[in-house]
Amino acid sequence: MSHNINIRKADQGDYIHAETISQWYLRSSQERGTGIAMRSAEYLKTKIENGNAIIAFVDDALAGFCYVEVFNSGEYVSNSGLIVTNEFRRMGLAKKIKKIAFNLAKDSNPEAKVFGITTSDVVMGINSDLGYRPVSFSQLTQDEEFWKGCSSCKNYDILTRNEKKMCLCTAMLAPSKNEQMKLDLEKMIIQPTKKKDE
Ligand SMILES: CC(C)(COP(=O)(O)OP(=O)(O)OC[C@H]1O[C@@H](n2cnc3c(N)ncnc32)[C@H](O)[C@@H]1OP(=O)(O)O)[C@@H](O)C(=O)NCCC(=O)NCCS
Which of 32, 122, 146 to mutate to test the pocket of ligand 1 (most atoms within 8 A of CB)? Predict the structure, then answer.
């Protein structure tokens, strides 16, 4: 059966969904048991208010969410809180949401490296396809605001015990939009595209 999928930037009309999405994080943390940061409805509303959230609907039903955060005055930007509700999993929604959130993060902060931390194999796969690579925590923002987000995770004691140098999450980093453009240009110079008759 084909579905009508609508993925877009969230706006103030979506505040009504914040509590439901907040509950999804709680449920997901209980189901996965791997540790996932909690986000209150109020917190999610600030992301929506700032134009930094992506929301997805399937046939008008709320289906997924993700948001962008900026750290170190634009040196780093993160895609956080990717979630798809159980009913709509395994239909490619997370991939689509993440791509839109990734482009939003890069376009609005072209100098910023994009990063995320995750325990999810699925998210690691999605990130790899977008050009992220695994890095140590030392390559991420050291901004306290980011790490504060981990304080509601059940593994927070592991993070603090290791002075935020490692935890159970894998850290992943992608080049900034401007860095990527430079890399693409270098690739074109080193490997010029073959002429048709070659
Ligand atoms: C992780 C999550 C966002 C994936 O959402 P989704 O919409 O089902 O993912 P997609 O359908 O886009 O799948 C992406 C890829 O992962 C694969 N995949 C998805 N779920 C999978 C699973 N449970 N087991 C194995 N592979 C899986 C898909 O087949 C697809 O593979 P492909 O690239 O080869 O096509 C969703 O399961 C979720 O919300 N989990 C709880 C919250 C969470 O863990 N968030 C991440 C925190 S960092």
Answer: 122
How many separate domains does the chain show? 1
For residue range 157-190, what is the model confidence (pLDDT) as tens digits?
999 999 999 999 999 999 999 999 999 999 888 8
- Helices 18-32 & 41-49, crossing angle to 10 degrees? 120
Domain that holds residue 48: 5-188
In a domain, residue 197? The reply is no
Q: Taken in order 58, 39, 142, 153, is the CA torsion positive or negative?
A: negative
CATH number of the domain at 89, please. Answer: 3.40.630.30
pLDDT in tens, 78-115: 999 999 999 999 999 999 999 999 999 999 999 999 99
Which of 89, 124, 153 for a ligand 1 pocket mutation test, highest count of atoms within 8 Å of Cβ? 89
CA of 194 to the centre of ligand 1 (A): 37
